[in-house]
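Re: [ENG-882] Designed sequences occasionally contain unexpected residues at chain ends

Forwarding the minimal case from QA. Structure tokens:
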């Protein structure tokens, strides 16, 4: 086990004595800011249309759904680690 870890360390840290040349990276902003803003507004509309957990529970309750304990996962299925 120790030999395997040592071999992995040697292989992983091998640089070959040469370093890769540094490359300059330039980031440019989006070409069309209006399109990005429009996409964000559209995403906000979708997320705002989703009901909150409380609203979901109220919808289920108002629909007349009843609690059925037999549908739950049995407590005996708990896996203790």
């Amino acid at each position: 086990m120790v030999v395997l870890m040592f071999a992995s360390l040697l292989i992983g840290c091998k640089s070959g004595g040469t370093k890769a040349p540094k490359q300059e990276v330039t980031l440019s902003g989006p070409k069309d800011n209006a399109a990005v803003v429009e996409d964000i507004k559209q995403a906000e509309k979708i997320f705002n249309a989703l009901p909150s957990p409380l609203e979901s529970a109220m919808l289920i309750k108002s629909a007349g759904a009843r609690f059925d304990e037999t549908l739950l996962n049995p407590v005996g299925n708990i896996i203790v680690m």
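QA comment: On inspection the terminal residues look reasonable. The longest helix spans residues 33-49. Proposing we downgrade this to a documentation issue.
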